[in-house]
TrEMBL record, chain B:
Name of the gene: wdr12
UniProt protein name: Ribosome biogenesis protein WDR12
Family: Belongs to the WD repeat WDR12/YTM1 family.
GO molecular function, one term: ribonucleoprotein complex binding
Subunit structure: Component of the PeBoW complex, composed of BOP1, PES1 and WDR12. Within the PeBoW complex BOP1 interacts directly with PES1 and WDR12. The PeBoW complex also associates with the 66S pre-ribosome.
WD repeat ranges per the UniProt record: 93-137, 142-174, 210-250, 260-282, 295-331
Length: 762, 380
């Protein structure tokens, strides 16, 4: 067995070698032959496709084409047996069979050409072609497979027979003799290069070697492609339906009638549902109640501030992107001209538009190290460090809205607006003025050592009294039933009786002056001496002289006209204020302690209070209880003047640091309002007796008139509106207006200035 | 006795006298002047027979006395002066112990005329002036006011006068001079003897006191013989009935009134106030606060206004801005003329009967103006 097998293998090997040689021989021939084959195949194919188109699925007819070829298969009978054994081949489609058969044709033709020889190749091929073409001409689709006439029956019916069918002549077609054992089969598998393409024909039981074309066809079909290699599956599609509205509808079928009438079936269904709902069989879906906390709110206790912080996240400022200037090769327009460069060098580093000079380099390689790198990094770090971490909520407040709504000055008339009269006559600066309670006379005291009396309405000086010293202060007795004037000069207070009033008034003032003398004795050695004047001075109207120990700065009358207070500012003494009683010719010092430099004093207009203005504050003393009731802090450095409202509940203070402070005694000890309208020191302040007006005189040469309504209602604060700046006085020796006072009945204001004039503004 | 300088001209060659000024008594009437001329002609020509002459003074026939063409002025030197229209001080009336605020003629016909002076010394003096002898005699001293008397006005008949004072009162007095002094209640403790010696003339007390003003009375006038009108610093003009002594109407302004003037021709009141405006009022309106017209051109207080006695629409005003302005009420925007003669404040203006305007001011001068030519004659 072994020998035989080995011999057989040898023989097989030999045959194999021979077979190997053959292709080598025919290698060159084959090229030509192949070309021809291809042509043939193409021709055949084109025809076969034509046939397919014609015959469609009639596979049976094709078999008939090959009916005459049954002999050719005899060469390879061995393979046929195998084929019949393989049950797998049965599953092949008709199409495959077809291909197999066509392939077979190709093979046969090949063999024929080989047999005929090289010379006759071309001719033979052509004749073959012609023959085949003829066959096809006579071919008809109705023809059956003429190689085997059993028809389309399962071939396993012939499994136990030596034949597999009958040919056209009615003779048995015998199965190919199967002499191949497994070993032969294996050797064949190993040696035959076409083994993989050899398939058994079920109809004839012979093996068929598939040509390359057929293999490609099988591959294409297996990949799901079209069998015809030339078929273009991506031909441009002809659209018959587009988005454009066509003139004619795609379908013109009228709408069905049923689309217009309610559906009976639906009605039935709905009525069933309705009935079920009525009967309570169907219930509406229950709404889930979430309130009892079906879900846990993870974010409920989230701190809102954290959220807010996230919301208010501010990105760090970005570095501006480099522009053309920063380029190593900037466009020429970005390079500095000489002028620009000079300008850049002149400018302050902080003013420069660019922190560097744009420079041009021929290549990036030549760019030097950046000298400002550290500096720039540092600045960037600073930016990041100092950038705002919080968004500033900018409140959009119109500055106009912040100004309190004040009435217009026009609505607050009357108030003095224009200068009407100028009282000229003094030769020195007029320090003090005072208007008689009737409003007919004006008294003025000047540095030229005279006191003048003027008629208000005509500006005529009716009387001049030389008192022999610079007059510091004049004050008309506020009592209308007496006509007296207190004058302070040097260390003397003079009481003048100008006899400008009614005889009765003059008499009553005389009576007041010629008071009982017994008071003198009681007084003994007081700080002041009272003396009556005689002779020339008496003729001038000077009636009393009150000699003080120190220089007197101010005199102030009590509203009843019997008491007059004088001020002697002195840092070191407690003898700064004296109150004199005219009727008894008595003087007293109300204060035992020195509480600061007294600037001005004033009596309360109705109640027994006494206001003492020191350098920084105003003290209010109760004269009956002999105690201090209030101390007003003026918030200014040096109070110059003070005036008490005729109602007695308000005080204004002028100070040398340009301020005017209004105190509401019911409100607080701090100023209710500070007015800073003056440019220079405020020298004098005054209230009007009847009109809601007050005025302040300043060294800047102006008198500012303000409206100051005081309400009886304690809840309503005073309304203070500056209404008018009155100019007229010339500034001489840095002194402007020195004193200001109102007319007692008219809304007129008098001011005396350093330019030796008194002016009336109406 | 006041003398006037006079020159006599004539077209008639027969009656030419020497062209030299003659000193003539101010009280001379036509007859006296005729006698003077006849005397002069007789001296030149013995065959001259007496002729009655008519005299033209500034184009007007002289009918009565020369002193009609004269005016008086009160001043702050405690005197009043009588001026002739030619600009000479005829007479100085000195009697007050204080400033003279206002003057008024009571009657100016005949040889004796009566004039009133109101003074700051709270009295009014009624003077009798004999123009022939140029002699002045204080007839009555009117006491009663307790403030300076700022205004005085005589009623159209000349029998009464009214005074307004700083003491807010108006007082009506009799202007008829008598030889008996009214009884005055003197305060008991007053040293009577001293006062007696100071007194000039006989004391007279007011017939009636009109009180109602809240402030000083600045100006008074008579609308007719029964009505007195007064302006005050309390921003009102009040019209009073003299018969009953009650107030009839009140016109309320917004500023102090300095002066008022009434024109019987157009029946309007003109007021000057401290706010630089001259306002025209109709005193007959009951509610009273109606301003018909306001004339605005002055830049200072208007201290004096006066209607023209013979012209319906003209009025003259004086102001503290040194200007006297002549207005025509038909053109209220601007005055007809600005008379800028004064160098200081103007305090009073007036018209003479002959149509001259007069103004006095704080520069101690009295100016007279002729309207047609607008020339000025300066007083001393």
């Amino acid at each position: 067995m072994e020998e035989s097998s080995s011999s057989s293998t040898r023989s097989a090997a030999q045959t194999h070698k021979i077979k190997e040689k053959e292709p080598q021989k025919g290698g060159k021939k084959r090229t030509k032959a192949e070309e021809e084959e291809e042509e043939e195949l193409f021709n055949f194919k084109s025809k076969s496709t034509e046939e397919e188109e014609e015959d469609e699925d009639l596979s049976d007819s094709e078999d008939s084409i090959f009916s005459g070829l049954e002999d050719s298969g005899s060469d390879e009978d061995d393979d046929d047996e195998e084929l019949s054994d393989d049950g797998d081949e049965e599953g092949l489609d008709d199409g495959e069979l077809k291909l197999e058969q066509t392939q077979q044709i190709g093979i046969e033709t090949k063999k024929e050409t080989e047999e005929t020889g090289e010379t006759e190749e071309t001719e033979g091929g052509r004749t073959e072609k012609a023959k085949q073409e003829d066959e096809y001409v006579h071919d008809s689709s109705d023809e059956e497979d003429i190689r085997n006439t059993v028809g389309n029956v399962p071939m396993e019916w012939y499994r136990d027979f030596p034949h597999i069918g009958y040919n056209l002549d009615g003779k048995k077609i015998y199965k190919p003799i199967r002499n191949k054992d497994e070993l032969d089969d294996f050797l064949d598998k190993m040696d035959n290069p076409d083994y993989w393409r050899t398939v058994p024909d079920k109809q004839t039981g012979s093996d068929v070697v598939l040509s390359d074309e057929q293999v490609q066809l099988v591959n294409r079909l297996q990949r799901g492609q079209f069998g015809d290699a030339n078929f273009n599956e991506y031909e441009p599609q002809v659209e018959f339906f587009s988005r454009d509205v066509m003139l004619h509808p795609v379908t013109n079928r009228p709408a069905d009638k049923r689309s217009f009438i309610p559906s009976l079936i639906e009605k039935e269904k709905v009525s069933k549902l309705v009935h079920a709902i009525k009967m309570g069989w169907i219930k509406p879906r229950r709404v889930e109640d979430d309130s009892r906390g079906r879900y846990y709110d993870l974010w409920a206790n989230e701190d809102s501030s954290i959220l807010a912080r996230h919301k208010m996240h501010l990105p760090a400022p970005k570095i501006p992107l480099p522009g053309h200037q920063e380029s190593y090769n900037p466009p020429p327009e970005y390079l500095f001209t000489d002028e620009e460069r000079a300008l850049w060098e002149q400018q302050d580093p902080c003013d420069r538009k660019l922190p560097f000079v744009p420079r041009k380099f021929s290549s990036l390689r030549q760019v030097p190290a950046f000298s400002r790198f550290i500096h720039e990094r540092f600045e960037r770090c600073l930016d990041l460090y100092l950038c705002p971490r919080q968004r500033k909520m900018r409140v959009n407040v119109n500055p106009e809205d912040l100004i309190p709504k004040l009435p217009k000055p026009k609505d607050l008339q009357p108030f003095p607006t224009t200068q009407s009269l100028v009282y000229r006559g003094h030769s020195g600066l007029v320090r003090s003025i005072s208007v008689s309670p009737s409003g007919q006379w004006l008294a003025s005291g000047s540095d030229d050592g005279s006191v003048r009396f003027w008629e208000v309405c005509s500006s005529r000086c009716l009387k001049t009294v030389q008192v022999g010293g610079a007059v510091k202060s004049v004050a008309w007795n506020p009592n209308p039933s007496v006509c007296l004037l207190a004058v302070a000069l040097d260390s003397v207070v003079l009481i003048l009786s100008p006899s400008l009033a009614d005889r009765q008034v003059v008499l009553s003032s005389e009576r007041l002056l010629s008071a009982p003398q017994e008071a003198d004795a009681n007084e003994g050695a007081g700080p002041v001496t009272w003396s009556e004047t005689e002779g020339e001075e008496l003729n001038h109207g000077i009636r009393l002289k009150i000699q003080h120990p120190k220089a007197v700065q101010q005199v102030s009358w009590h509203a009843k006209g019997d008491y007059v207070a004088s001020v002697m500012p002195d840092h070191s003494s407690n003898l700064q204020v004296l109150i004199h009683q005219l009727s008894r010719r008595r003087s007293q010092n109300p204060f035992r302690k020195n509480k600061g430099l007294v600037q001005c004093v004033s009596f309360h207009p109705v109640r027994p209070y006494f206001f003492v203005g020191t350098q920084r504050s105003v003290r209010i003393y109760n004269l009956v209880k002999q105690e201090m009731t209030k101390k007003l802090q003026a918030n200014s450095k040096w109070i110059s003047s003070m005036a008490v409202h005729p109602g007695g509940d308000h005080v204004i203070c002028g100070s040398y640091d340009c301020r005017l402070s209004w105190f509401d005694l019911d409100l607080s000890t701090k100023p209710y309002k500070m007015l800073r309208h003056h440019k220079k020191a405020v020298r004098g302040v005054a209230y009007h007796r009847l009109y809601p007006l007050f005025a302040s005189a300043s060294d800047d040469g102006t008198v500012i008139v303000c409206h100051g309504t005081v309400y009886n209602d304690l809840l309503q604060n005073p309304l203070i509106v500056p209404v008018k700046v009155l100019r007229g006085h010339e500034i001489t020796h840095d002194l402007g207006v020195l004193d200001v006072t109102f007319h007692p009945t008219q809304p007129w204001v008098f001011s005396s200035g350093a330019d030796a004039t008194i002016r009336l503004f109406t | 006795m006041s003398q006037l300088q006079a020159r006599f001209f004539t077209e008639d060659k027969r009656y030419i006298v020497d062209d030299v000024p003659f000193s003539i008594p101010a009280g001379s009437e036509v007859q006296d002047l005729s006698n003077v001329i006849n005397k002069l002609l007789e001296a030149n020509n013995a065959s001259h027979s007496k002729v009655e002459f008519d005299f033209l003074v500034r184009g007007q026939f002289l009918r009565t006395s020369l002193s009609i063409h004269m005016d008086t002025e009160g001043s702050y030197d405690k005197t009043a002066r009588i001026w002739s229209v030619e600009g000479k001080a005829v007479m100085t009336v000195a009697g007050h112990t204080d400033v003279v605020k206002d003057v008024a003629w009571v009657k100016r016909d005949g040889l004796t005329s009566l004039l009133l002076t109101a003074s700051l010394d709270q009295t009014l003096l009624l003077w009798e002036w004999n123009s022939e002898r140029n002699k002045l005699k204080a007839r009555h001293c009117c006491r009663g006011h307790t403030g300076s008397v700022d205004a005085v006005a005589t009623d159209p008949t000349g029998s009464k006068f009214c005074s307004g004072s700083w003491d807010k009162m108006l007082k009506i007095w009799s202007a008829v001079p008598t030889d008996e002094a009214d009884e005055v209640e003197e305060p008991a403790d007053r040293p009577r003897k001293k006062q007696k010696t100071q007194q000039l003339g006989l004391t007279r007390t007011p017939l009636m006191t009109l009180s109602g003003h809240n402030e000083a009375v600045s100006s008074v006038l008579w609308c007719d013989s029964e009505e007195v009108c007064s302006a005050s610093w309390d921003h009102t003009i009040r019209v009073w009935d003299v018969e009953t002594g009650g107030m009839k109407t009140a016109l309320t302004g917004s500023k102090v009134f300095n002066c008022i003037s009434y024109s019987p021709l157009c029946r309007r009141l003109a007021s000057g106030s401290t706010d630089r405006h001259i306002r025209l009022w109709d005193p007959r309106t009951k509610d009273g606060s109606l301003v018909l017209l306001s004339l605005t051109s002055h830049t200072g207080w208007v201290t004096a206004v006066k209607w023209a006695p013979s012209h319906e629409h003209q009025l003259v005003s004086g102001s503290l801005d040194n200007l006297v302005k002549l207005w025509d009420t038909r053109s209220c925007k601007a005055p007809l003329y600005d008379l800028a003669a004064h160098e200081d404040k103007v305090f009073c203006v007036d018209w003479t009967e002959s149509g001259l305007m007069l103004s006095g001011g704080a520069d101690n001068k009295l100016y007279s103006y002729r309207y047609s030519a607008c020339q000025t004659d300066a007083g001393a």
